Amino acid sequence: MYSTNKHNPANTAASFNDGSVWMLLAINIIALITAVWQGWSLAELMLIYWAQSLIIGASYVLRIRKLGNYSTEGFRMNGRSVEPNAATKRKTAFFFCIHYGGFHAVYLIFILQDLPLDILLDPGFVACTVGFAINHGYSYRFHRQKDDQGKPNIGTLMFTPYLRILPMHLTIIFGGATGSAGIGLIIFGALKTVADAVMHVIEHRRLGTRPETEAGVEA
Question: Tens digits of per-residue pLDDT, 46-93?
């Protein structure tokens, strides 16, 4: 995937001036402090970020479905180029739900191996999840406005959420999901916070540049 857009420092500065990035960082820090304070395992902390990841995925499904004027440059389905029409939006959203949702179903199996189901009712878990929902609800409204003003690439929209789940994905692969609270929890929380902040800035900087042309994404 490549972009023909040139870097504009003003867009990066605007991303940090947007209050949502600071709210996102604050929620991440609160989640990490809550985990350390309550003596959570790494799996318990990961469950919060799993819920956040589902919220992000849902917001991208809605964005894809509500696209108006959009680009399919470099985007292919089953090896074929597609047209920017309603059918492409529908098929892309469906593929994303199955693929992204499948990843998260597997993640949940690993995360819940040693956790009781009543963790879902823990006040700390509920509060952090609600905080993420509010933050990403705000970001969704911001992004929808930018989508309507520009010509986003549907392939980029489908691909972007996966970048945020890399810390969780790598932690599960290397067996950290069943680890106890400690340095592993702090390292994972820090990596996830950095990933959230970086992706937030990248997304806002990209939306701040028009027109957008992306290529090299396939479903």
Answer: 888 899 899 999 999 999 999 999 999 988 888 888 899 999 999 999
| Beta carbons within 8 Å of 167's beta carbon, 6+ residues apart | 49, 188, 191, 192, 195
For the record, the structure tokens of 65 come out as 């479905």
How far is the C-alpha of 35 from the C-alpha of 27, rounded, in Å?
12
As given in the structure block, the two tokens for residue 219 are 């479903």
Number of Cβ atoms within 10 Å of the Cβ of 72: 21
Beta bridge partners of 3: 214
Q: Of 24, 4, 19, give the one whose Cα is nearest residue 193.
A: 24
Beta bridge partners of 171: none
Strand 217-218 versus strand 75-77 pairing type: parallel
| CB of 115 closer than 8 Å to CB of 47 | yes
pLDDT of 1 reads 34
- 182: tokens are 């400690």
pTM of the model: 0.77
Measured CA angle at 62 (ends 60, 66), to 5 deg = 115
What residues contact residue 114 under an 8 Å CB cut-off, 6+ apart? Answer: 41, 43, 178
